[in-house]
Specification:
Length: 183
């Protein structure tokens, strides 16, 4: 993939992540969105560095004031919202997924699943740590880890599984058409 094609693809992934923020189910302090599907694909298609770069651009656009986050949230105030840890996790997810897949064939279903599971762990790890800190230190609501998991992880698992299966399928199909050379 040439540098120009990679740049265009990274821009497309950032844009698709932004658009998918508006496909959401508002279930609590953190909505269920389609964003993780495109975050996983950005790492799988672009590799670690470019995938993370596409998601960093997405997060920076939102922090700069463009309404690209779920529910139309925007600006630096998002840093003090319960969803910010998940947004940070997007960048780490794309990096880890892409870096893992940089070492293996992208058309291998077991490798795609492993790389994307690693990415999901990054999103939930960052998101849950921040959500716990948000509740206990910013919102002034003393909470426990089981309560944080009940709000920030458990409702997302079935939807995450569906998005993972879709992302593996699309990622495998794209791997037949997109040849990723070393960055």
């Amino acid at each position: 993939m040439s540098r120009n094609v990679r740049l265009a693809t990274a821009s497309l992934m950032a844009a698709l992540t932004a658009v998918s923020a508006y496909i959401n189910i508002p279930i609590g302090p953190v909505p269920i969105t389609m964003q993780t599907f495109f975050v996983l694909l950005s790492g799988a298609v672009l590799g670690g560095r470019w995938g993370a770069g596409s998601q960093a651009v997405y997060v920076c656009l939102g922090l700069a004031g463009i309404p690209v986050f779920a529910g139309g949230m925007t600006g630096p105030a998002v840093v003090l919202s319960p969803t910010f840890g998940y947004l940070v996790g997007f960048v780490l997810c794309a990096f880890l997924t892409g870096s893992y897949l940089d070492r293996f064939t992208r058309s291998s279903i077991p490798h795609l699943v492993a790389g994307m599971l690693l990415g999901h762990v990054a999103i939930f790890g960052c998101g849950l740590l921040y959500l716990y800190a948000y509740f206990n230190y910013y919102a002034g609501v003393e909470t426990t880890w089981p309560a944080t998991l009940a709000v920030g992880l458990i409702p997302f698992l079935p939807f995450g599984l569906v998005k993972l299966v879709l992302a593996v399928s699309v990622g495998r199909t794209l791997s037949k058409y997109v040849r990723l050379e070393s960055p």
